[in-house]
Amino acid sequence: MAFRWKNTLTENDVTPEALYLSRRQLMGGAAGLGLATLAGRAGAMEAGLEPNDWDDITSYNNFYEFGTGKSDPANNAHALTIDPWSVRIDGLVDKPGDYAFEDIMKAMSVEERIYRFRCVEAWSMVVPWNGFELADLLTMAGIQSGAKYVAFETLYRPEEMVGQKYAVLDWPYVEGLRLDEAMHPLTLMATGIYGRDIPKQNGAPLRLVVPWKYGFKSIKSIVRITLTDKEPPTSWNIANGREYGFYSNVNPKVDHPRWSQASERVIGGGLFARKQPTLMFNGYEEEVASLYAGMDLGTFF
Ligand code: MTE
């Protein structure tokens, strides 16, 4: 990785929790980590983002497969078996197949990215992820010329995922991106937080992170990635198409039908939790606005 996006930082700038990295996080490419850390330091000064602490990030979650309460995932996700784990990559790719998680980690270069994370419920955090670019994984599978979209699917295993016993959503959880969004260098497959393996409540062993979109696009515990020529169905759009569109780009000017998106509650700080204005594309406008040139973002919300 020769350069970095100016809004991405590394946790080494801000916390001693980064002092140790787990074996899985390192396996992906220690050299890449070193470079990213150096360049990220400049980014930290520029963007001034301060990551939330480990407890906020791992105890205030949305992962409906484990219940709809914010603390349900942290309480229930221990039941999930994540070893062995494999991801089926299929559809319009040259090398379809079941890829073992360990093999993916050996092939990918893991780096640190500190991103803003904005939930459609109007709260936000800053998370120091470890992960690799989705583009690298898709390239490894060999993208065929007809591919226009990427579909993602979460594990369906009601014996371990207690929330799947209830029809809150149409299981399994599914999401999708346009291919150019999926190939954007900001789009990450996260495998860690603060240098440790990503906790189960946050989507172990690997989940998507698309920092300029509302958090529900960032699908957790992925078992399948399909390259396709059609816009794939997405869970929240299936549940309520009037409220949740396919694009779901963070946009302070396009309100959710039931609440404003102009500002957000910053998680952390306990009693002193503050509100801040929401930024266009969650602060990544410079990097991603060109993807949507000429599109009416009120129509394609
Ligand atoms: N992925 C799956 N499989 N199931 C979910 O319920 N919730 C989404 C997203 N990914 C969800 C999911 C929502 S609404 C948000 S805001 C983020 O995960 C929350 O991620 P976090 O708990 O790591 O903050």
Describe the structure.
Strands 3, 4, 7, 8, 9, 11 and 12 form a 7-stranded mixed beta sheet that branches. The chain has a 5-stranded mixed beta sheet with strand order 2-1-10-5-6. By secondary structure, the chain is of the alpha+beta class. The two termini are 32 Å apart. The chain has one domain: Sulfite Oxidase, Chain A, domain 2 (Alpha-Beta Complex). The longest helix has 18 residues. The site of ligand MTE has 15 residues, from loops.
Distance between the termini: 32 Å
Please, what is the oligomeric state?
single chain
Bound molecules: ligand MTE
The rough form would be described as globular
List the topology elements.
Layout: H1 23-27, H2 30-47, H3 54-59, H4 72-76, E1 86-91, E2 97-100, H5 101-107, E3 111-118, E4 123-133, H6 134-141, E5 149-154, E6 174-178, H7 179-182, E7 188-193, E8 196-197, E9 207-209, E10 222-228, H8 235-239, E11 263-266, E12 275-277, H9 285-288
Parallel strand pairs: 1-10, 4-11
Antiparallel strand pairs: 1-2, 3-4, 4-7, 5-6, 5-10, 7-8, 7-9, 11-12
Residues 61-65, 119, 154, 173, 202, 215-216, 218-221 line the site of ligand MTE.
